[in-house]
Design brief:
Largest sheet: none
Order of helices and strands: HHHHHHH
């Protein structure tokens, strides 16, 4: 055992409480993968990196819209449940005055709005998943396409296979940003109470 053992344990515990573990690994992964890709395809990695950044910005925008829609969905659910509660509490009055059908239509309109918002949220989450699923192939296509057009060379398997593996490894850590942002927001909301 070294004399630094208590300090490294203390540092790890402090780091794990402040930020998720992957945040510390990301710069090392990113720099090493960029150096390896630059060694293989030179400046053709820049359009691939721009593609990753644009796709992740689009995903972030979709997730932000999903957050606003989550709030809207909860509001519409509250409205519908409030109308249902009002109908249950005054069912005899509604039946006596023959207002059951209009009140039921009122509740169903709130339910239709709730389902519409839920469908939009589902679309947002599926689009983020689709972009994340197709991103490695898209980045590979952009990078190798730029390499062929810019350098005018033919692709060989000895170049393509390592580049595909490196690009897949490069896209992976970028997918963690959404998880880290969510963990931070949960942590912040928990300590804000």
């Amino acid at each position: 055992r070294s004399t630094l053992f208590p300090y490294t344990t203390l540092f790890r515990s402090l780091a794990s409480k402040c930020l998720p573990e992957g945040v510390w690994l990301f710069p090392f992964q990113f720099i090493s993968l960029m150096l390896l890709l630059f060694h293989q395809v030179r400046w053709a990695i820049v359009p691939g990196l721009v593609t990753i950044l644009v796709a992740k910005v689009v995903c972030a925008g979709l997730l932000i819209c999903d957050g606003f829609l989550r709030h809207r969905q909860l509001c519409t659910k509250d409205t519908r449940l409030g109308r249902c509660d009002e109908g249950f509490n005054s069912i005899r009055t509604l039946q006596m005055l023959a207002w059951v059908r209009p009140f039921q239509d009122h509740i169903m309109a709130a339910r239709a709005e709730e389902l519409h918002v839920q469908k939009l949220r589902l679309w947002m989450s599926k689009m983020v998943a689709a972009i994340d699923y197709t991103l490695p192939a898209l980045v590979t296509l952009v990078t190798l396409g730029f390499y062929v057009v810019h350098h005018g060379r033919e692709l060989k398997a000895s170049l393509v296979l390592p580049v595909i593996g490196l690009i897949t490894s490069l896209v992976g850590p970028f997918g963690q940003f959404q998880l880290w942002a969510n963990q931070y927001l949960v942590w912040r909301s928990a300590y804000a109470r």
